[in-house]
Write a structure and sequence with these properties.
The structure holds two protein chains of two kinds.
Chain A lengths: L6 E4 L3 E6 L2 E6 L10 E4 L1 H9 L4 E2 H12 L3 H17 L3 E3 L1
Antiparallel strand pairs in A: 1-5, 1-6, 2-3, 3-4
Helix pairs in contact in A: 2-3
Chain B lengths: L13 E5 L20 H7 L3 H14 L3 E5 L9 H9 L4 E6 L6 H9 L4 E6 L4 H8 L4 H12 L5 E7 L8 H9 L5 E4 L13 H4 L3 H19 L37 E4 L4 E3 L9 E2 H4 L1 H11 L7 H4 L11 H8 L7 H15 L1
Parallel strand pairs in B: 1-2, 1-7, 2-3, 3-4, 4-5, 5-6
Antiparallel strand pairs in B: 7-8, 8-9
Helix pairs in contact in B: 2-3, 3-4, 9-14
Classes of the chains: A alpha+beta, B alpha/beta.
């Protein structure tokens, strides 16, 4: 699948919260049939999940990560692509 | 020496919302149940719909992730669905405790849209006669089974529990068989504590003796293990019950308030808005309505004043097997430094069972 020209958005079924200074995604609704629990997010994942409330391209996400975390655009895009792949495999993002 | 000043950070990770103390059943062994004549006052004192939803908002902001919704029977509240939905939308790992006898279409519509992550169902017997004897209702079993059938259509993990007393101990095999038919198993509660926080039921008359409880527990555990041993090996295998070692590999001290995690990472909000460390122990509390949750949580340790452990317990030879804690002392003796005979009997029976 070519991810570069697609837009992605976080699926509903997760609530993003702070718990004891950590960011977590809590599965809610009918999605608990597939995943019953919560996911701990690191700061980058938390930043990206918030951005994915709106449809975003890999380019957009990469640029935002590069600026926020002061890494090169190439490095940021590579990490974002891997993250989106993982979310897609787990059914946590949808394509617009 | 550890003092309150050196207390490590406390995070209110695990919460319990006791929506009501009222219940539609009259279980003989219930620790919490009050007289029906108190229902009007109890209902008047309960937090209202908006207060519970606001409380959920506050505890979410304070960092609670696991939230147990319980009672009494929470579904007895007319506004259960509104409260439940308002809590759920804040984002918790939700566990819902129920006796499954009040599952209406409206409740199911709500639970289908907002399924709890776990549902704990308490069973009281294997037929209507047992429900009549234990809970004082005529068709309780039929209603519970109908409720369970509906709850099992949800994507939630379902856990079944049964408190064994003289009136339902004969039902244990039938209940296990029934629940195993669902592909699940039943957790049995054998230690049945005396009423707490104004409870009025005749627990001490209906509970099994400590020795009978322990013998039942060990006997069933050994039988289950024996069933797993192939016939060809049965005469070669000997099952030995041994005492769990309480030796600790670390010298690191862990600070607690009540001897467990209560008040350190867990709490209960009572039906009337008090914050208590443990649902069984109401003598130490702060007021979430006056102070708000965060301040009430911060202040809770300063309300806990425990007397020294009784000398008899400090020196007791059964100490390693003993399940006593301040809440149990209070329930059984009415004081925080009492020596509860029922628990002593348990420890002695365990030792006897272990030594075989």
């Amino acid at each position: 699948m070519n991810f570069s020209d697609k837009l992605f958005r976080a699926k509903s079924g997760f609530i993003h919260r702070k718990v004891a200074n950590e960011d977590v995604l809590i599965s809610v609704g009918s999605g608990i049939a597939n995943f019953n629990g919560y996911i701990l997010l690191n700061p980058t994942a938390s930043f990206l999940w918030d951005m994915l409330k709106e449809p975003r391209s890999i380019q957009e996400l990469g640029e935002a990560v590069a600026e926020e975390f002061e890494v090169s655009l190439a490095e940021a895009k590579a990490d974002v692509t891997e993250f989106i792949h993982m979310l897609s495999d787990k059914g946590m993002v949808e394509e617009e | 020496m550890i003092t309150l000043d050196s207390m490590p950070p406390r995070y209110p990770i695990n919460g319990t919302f006791e929506l009501t103390l009222r219940c539609n059943l009259h279980c003989k062994m219930c620790m919490f149940r009050r007289k029906d004549s108190e229902n009007t006052i109890l209902e008047h004192e309960e937090l209202n719909t908006q207060q519970w939803i606001d409380m959920a908002r506050q505890v979410a902001n304070a960092g609670t992730i696991n939230l147990l919704i319980t009672g009494g029977e929470p579904m007895l509240r007319k506004d259960f669905c509104e409260i439940y939905r308002g809590i759920y939308e804040q984002g918790f790992i939700i566990t819902l405790y129920t006796n499954a006898t009040m599952i209406t279409e409206k409740v199911m519509q709500t639970l289908r849209e907002f399924p709890p992550h776990r549902i704990g169902i308490t069973l009281y017997g294997a037929n209507n006669d047992s429900y009549k004897k234990v809970c004082g209702v005529a068709n309780g079993f039929d209603r519970a089974i109908e409720g369970i059938k509906q709850l099992r259509t949800l994507p939630s993990v379902i856990e079944y529990r049964m408190t064994l007393i003289k009136d339902n101990v004969e039902d244990l095999d039938a209940i296990c068989h029934l629940i195993e038919g669902f592909g699940e198993c039943v957790t049995n509660t054998l230690i049945v504590f005396s009423p707490v926080r104004g409870g009025c039921m005749p627990v001490q008359e209906c509970r099994l003796s400590a020795e009978d409880s322990v013998n039942l527990s060990i006997g069933r555990t050994v039988s289950k293990i024996e069933e797993m041993i192939p016939d060809s090996l049965k005469d070669k295998v000997r099952i030995r019950v041994s005492e769990k070692s309480h030796e600790c590999n670390t010298t690191e001290e862990k600070m607690t308030l009540l001897g467990c995690d209560a008040g350190m990472d867990s709490y209960t909000i009572t039906f009337d808005g008090k914050l208590i460390g443990c649902q069984m122990l109401g003598v130490f509390y702060t007021d979430t309505i006056k102070e708000g949750f965060s301040v009430a949580w911060e202040n809770y340790p300063f309300e806990v004043h425990l007397p020294d452990e009784p000398e008899e317990c400090v020196k007791c030879e059964y100490k390693n097997l003993c399940k006593v804690c301040p809440a149990v002392r209070m329930a059984e003796c009415g004081s925080l430094n009492g020596v509860p005979k029922y628990i002593c009997d348990f420890s002695k029976a365990m030792k006897k069972g272990v030594e075989g």
